[in-house]
Amino acid sequence: MNPNERMVTRIKSIYYYLKQKGNDVHSTELAEEFGYNARTIQRDLKTLEYNNLVKNTGRGKWAVI
Fold it and tell me: How many C-beta atoms lie closer than 10 Å to residue 45's C-beta?
């Protein structure tokens, strides 16, 4: 699997996890769940936010729109 495919798979996994868990999932919870660096998770969340799929609900918490 090339790096782009891994990134897309990771971002999709994050989105589905957020959708399943509901509102206000903290970015550190996502980092622990998926085993990635917190900065990587934040970058992925910003990508999802840019595409209007998630929103930051404050203090590192995220929810699906």
Answer: 23
Strand ranges inside the chain, DSSP E: 25-26, 54-58, 61-64
**Which residues contact residue 63 at a Cβ distance below 8 angstroms, ignoring those fewer than 6 apart?**
18, 22, 23, 24, 25, 54, 55, 57
Residue whose pair of structure tokens reads 């799929």 in the numeric block: 53
Whether the model clears a pTM of 0.90, i.e. scores above it, the answer is: yes
How deeply is 22 buried, as exposed, middle or buried, from its count of CB atoms within 10 A (0-12, 13-18, 19+)? exposed
User: Which residue is it, tokens 């782009």?
Assistant: 4
Residue-wise pLDDT for 10-24, tens only, equals 999 999 999 999 888
